[in-house]
Amino acid sequence: MKHKKDILILGYSGTASQCPFDTETWGINLAGKYCLGRKVDYCFAFDELPSEYITEMKKLAPIISFQDYADFQYPLQEILDTFRSKYFVNSLCYMIAYAIYVGTKRLSLYGCDTMLGGMWQRESKG
User: Fewer CB in a 10 Å sphere around the end CB: N or C, the chain?
Assistant: First the structure.
């Protein structure tokens, strides 16, 4: 699969509204659903998900994942080998690794800032 050299990654937090959508845009799970009038090019998801959630994501864009529901298979083993890692801690880390792996030259993140506590506490090691 060929990707552009400039990539935007879109998450759910407040800065998502600042995403310019002026190049290829990757959404974390259903993040693209909340940007009215804008479209993500791919949804990335890595968890086991209920079929209704997957169906909703596929209405937004093709899914890149290492799960069976993927439209495009994430090259998990190749990326883990490249980065000499056993795993990444969250979707954003898997997406950044993939962006580097496919040769992205400029990577911008919107809506990926997390607040202290909760998820940040559990995933800060990533």
Answer: N
